[in-house]
Write a structure and sequence with these properties.
about 240 residues; alpha/beta; 2 domains; 4-stranded antiparallel sheet; 10 strands; about 35% helix; binds adenosine-5'-triphosphate; binds magnesium ion
Length: about 240
Amino acid sequence: MSLLEVSDLSVSYGSVVAVRRVGLSVAKGELLALLGPNGAGKTSLLSAIAGLIAPTEGSIRFRDKDITGVAAHRLAPRGLRLVPESRALFPHMTTAENLRLGAGRMARDDFDKSLESIIETFPVLGERQRQLAGTLSGGEQQMLSIARALIAGPDLLILDEPSMGLAPIVVSEIMATLAQLRDQGLAVLVAEQNARAVLPVADSAALMVRGSITLSGAPDTLEERLSADGYLGTSSSSDSDSG
Ligand SMILES: Nc1ncnc2c1ncn2[C@@H]1O[C@H](COP(=O)(O)OP(=O)(O)OP(=O)(O)O)[C@@H](O)[C@H]1O
Ligand SMILES: [Mg+2]
């Protein structure tokens, strides 16, 4: 059974329709990759699901309850967390303070336990607890942003372009972490332009183009279609030898 169920969802900015009657679902222990080029509507879709903007039509159900139009700060305690593209850290606060802010009204003991397991997942954050978030590397900041979303133990983690601006090695590390969290039972919805990075860890994938989902299915099937349609660019492993 699905944890998140989005049906016929549309988002408009004035007369601009950014998301057009999109449907998707994510189950517990599933990682869904939402692919698509610039301006496809990925951020608009994620923002509507996470309660940052109101959809113009359609419905969003989470844990079998209608959450359409419910604001982000009410969704977080219910177990739905967004890691925005901007990472939205407090740069003048330390790593530890940023994590504490992700915990909401969690009891001190629960926070300490959760922090321990977060540091197991992201050992580097343990070493950087007293460092100001603004002075962390890009990869460390992304990890902190993910860690902050995880600290209160969500059921669904939504990430908007976690690979943005990061070196390939750091991107693989982050994707491996998402796969590990999924294996632990978390539902993960991740928007990515970097299809090559996310498809290997995805359980399912959907391609969004100009506001609509034009293709969805198993990651390997999608990869073939994307490659044929030129969405993956030139591959070094492709048999074409011209650049
Ligand atoms: N606040 C806004 N006001 C008006 N139009 C907007 C706003 N935000 C997004 N749009 C428009 O909605 C469309 C979808 O944008 P969106 O940011 O959702 O796409 P995206 O797939 O996340 O793109 P990217 O990969 O570049 O992040 C674009 O045409 C964009 O210009
Ligand atoms: Mg975006």
